[in-house]
Amino acid sequence: MVCAQTIRLTEETDKQALLEFKSQVSETSRVVLGSWNDSLPLCSWTGVKCGLKHRRVTGVDLGGLKLTGVVSPFVGNLSFLRSLNLADNFFRSAIPLEVGNLFRLQYLNMRNNFLGGMIPVVLSNCSSLSTLDLSSNHLEQGVPFEFGSLSKLVILSLGRNNLTGKFPASLGNLTSLQMLDFIYNQIEGEIPGSIARLKQMVFFRIALNKFNGVFPPPVYNLSSLIFLSITGNSFSGTLRPDFGSLLPNLQILYMGINNFTGTIPETLSNISALQQLDIPSNHLTGKIPLSFGKLQNLLQLGLNNNSLGNYSSGDLDFLGTLTNCSQLQYLNFGVNKLGGQLPVFIANLSTQLTELSLGGNLISGSIPHGIGNLVSLQTLDLGENLLTGKLPPSLGELSELRKVLLYSNGLSGEIPSSLGNISGLTYLYLLNNSFEGSIPSSLGSCSYLLDLNLGTNKLNGSIPHELMELPSLVVLNVSFNLLVGPLREDVGKLKFLLALDVSYNKLSGQIPRTLANCLSLEFLLLQGNSFVGPIPDIRGLTGLRFLDLSKNNLSGTIPEYMANFSKLQNLNLSVNNFEGAVPTEGVFRNTSAMSVIGNINLCGGIPSLQLEPCFVELPGRHSSVRKIIAICVSAGMAALLLLCLCVVYLCRYKQRMKSVRANNNENDRSFSPVKSFYEKISYDELYKTTGGFSSSYLIGSGNFGAVFKGFLGSKNKAVAIKVLNLCKRGAAKSFIAECEALGGIRHRNLVKLVTVCSSADFEGNDFRALVYEFMSNGNLDMWLHPDEIEETGNPSGTLTVVERLNIAIDVASALVYLHTYCHNPIAHCDIKPSNILLDKDLTAHVSDFGLAQLLLKFDRDTFHIQFSSAGVRGTIGYAAPEYGMGGHPSIMGDVYSFGILLLEIFTGKRPTNKLFVDGLTLHSFTKSALPKRQALDITDQSILRGAYAQHFNMVECLTLVFQVGVSCSEESPVNRISMAEAVSKLVSIRERFFGDEET
């Protein structure tokens, strides 16, 4: 009886510990933790495993369930626990010290969460641990020296954190260790010699840290190694000649982006199981070993960006031996010192080869017809060599090709029309060769073409109209050829065109006015042709940076609107027949940025141009008198009207200020959180640091006031000071709401409230100001719509796809925190681009909590909320539809706003765009494009400007992003996904298309 009672008591201990754990965790689906209740036996709970004898909990497996919350310290009461798996969730905060009580624990996996703080030293008390995986979190400081006592440890994975310090020598005591992973940290110094004792090690990855010294000598002793990655450190010196003999079991070897010198060890070819050998971006010299052909299992060989070879005829002999490697998928020897003729036997390389890169050498000869045998080839890079001869038509048989880079050679003959068969081709670089004949019209069938560069050849004929039908073309360069005829009107169809270069041909006719439709243009180079007529109206091309119309036969006047092209860095209008006045503003102020020489009929301009003054006809005397009288009468009437308005305003202002002061005094009495800030900063300090709130310190304005830049404290820390206009209705409540929302929360993606000022100005008027960390890159709205913003300091560049995706993930992570991790959930209620601030690293910070609502109760099934105050406007276009029907603030309203924000980030269109009429919305506009794979058609043109240099499937990536935005912005709240799910999907997209390859 006593024994039975003891068992019940200990079972009850485990049960209570798990219920405490559950109380601090939330689950989207409620499928797993829903079974954790009194109606079911403890050992029947989902994810819980019990021992057969004592029925104590021995295992908890909750991996990949998208759980949010903190890890309860009560988990330390599960004294019989042997396995704890919390991987791939959204747990935050620190790892509880009580985990160190689990002396029976053998398996601990908390990877891919949001855990922070330092790694608890007390984990070294878990003496039975065989697996410890804390990778992909936000852990800081060093790896505990005490971990050297975990003698049973087999797997230690701490990669993708923010760990610093040295590599603990004590880890050499872990003689059972088979896997050690420290990738993506900031650990520095040399690898200690004690590591040589880890004879069972098979996986050793310390890539992307700050290690230095020679290749770690103790690693040579780890003869069981299968995977070795030391990429992205500062290792130097030479590799031992017997490298391959010492590490005979390697399958993966990554040593790129270091400072290794000397030759490649021949003995690497003795590693018969080697699959991937990657040593790019070092200083290796000598020949590439012929013996690599013995590596029958080789899949990847990357030796680019070294100094291999000596520009001699035998440098490429190794390629002949590689034909024995039938599984090869990747070969990259670009930017070395390889010479000799391109061998015919490259056609005999593996049919599984997807990339062949030999660019940036001095290879001669011709491209063999047999290149068509490489049926899996996606990238062919032979640029910047000495190749001659014709381009084989068999190249068009490679249907998987995406990139053909053959620039800067001596290739000749006609461009094969068969290239038009490669429907997925995205980059075709044939510039700087000697190609003749016409441009194949078949290239118009390459509907995914982003960059077509045919410049500096001997091409003739006209520019095929089929090229103007390419929907995604970003760069079109046909300069320095012999092309004739007009520049076609349908060039205006190239909506995404960033650069158009047709310079130095024999083109004629007028410059097409449809160029005005190419709103993405930054480079427009038409010089050295025979264009005639006036410059067409292209005032909408405000993104132009380089405009060259020189050496043509253009006439007419220079348009005044060109002075408004604020981004224009170079303007060349020389050697034409322009006449009339030269503008004096904008780029025309700087003679080093513009040229108008060779136009004999021009006048005016800035003095340094030394042009004749322009003749201006003076009006008649009587006409002049009449104009003066009219001006005086108009000015007098305007002054009288202004005086009346001032009197009315002052009367109303005095009445309003009395009311505002009364309201603010009441707010001060009822809102205690502000009072804790009262003494931190005074009105006088803010007045001084902003030059008396001078307009020269003004950096923006919002719903309830203006924002100034200032510097506070002994370190002159830059801050943003939001001064509220208390005369505006709701400003005082906005002040209180923002303090309530930001007073007790901390997150890397929320703007940090430094302090507040609740005082009086020098005239005794009430004064309220909020002081934030200064964000040097302004707000997201400035980056998405730079041409619409009149404020100074507009961004000079555009955001790439991955930068936009990172910003979206930052915002979503902040909302997950507000909705889930705060003591009471907080609905922001005004998510929009102008409320997303960007720091120097373009990390996003959600700001402006003036409309935020503290939600006191939230039912996750019905989305019903009880809250502290009702009624919210938000911003038109971003506010959820239910708000317009009297609905209360909710986290699902934030989800809707985020969805609209996400769509705007990637389409570049505001939800209030004039396009959206007659029931069409940004949501429906995007949703209708997805089934038709028209993602590129709706994408912000500026995204494509830099995308052509990136290696990813843009259509698929953008489609997946748009699907997340559409799922968040469904009209009904019950149909929207949660913010946690949105974060998960966006992170998965980033990892899939931009995540690091195994290094």
UniProtKB/TrEMBL annotation:
It holds the Pfam family LRRNT_2. ATP binds at residue 722. GO terms for cellular component: plasma membrane. Its EC number is 2.7.11.1. It comes from the Eukaryota. InterPro entries: Leu-rich_rpt, Leu-rich_rpt_typical-subtyp, LRR_N_plant-typ, LRR_R13L4/SHOC2-like, Plant_receptor-like_S/T_kinase, Prot_kinase_dom, Protein_kinase_ATP_BS, Ser-Thr/Tyr_kinase_cat_dom. It is found in: Cell membrane. It catalyses: L-threonyl-[protein] + ATP = O-phospho-L-threonyl-[protein] + ADP + H(+); L-seryl-[protein] + ATP = O-phospho-L-seryl-[protein] + ADP + H(+). Belongs to the protein kinase superfamily. Ser/Thr protein kinase family. This is non-specific serine/threonine protein kinase. It comes from Arabidopsis suecica.
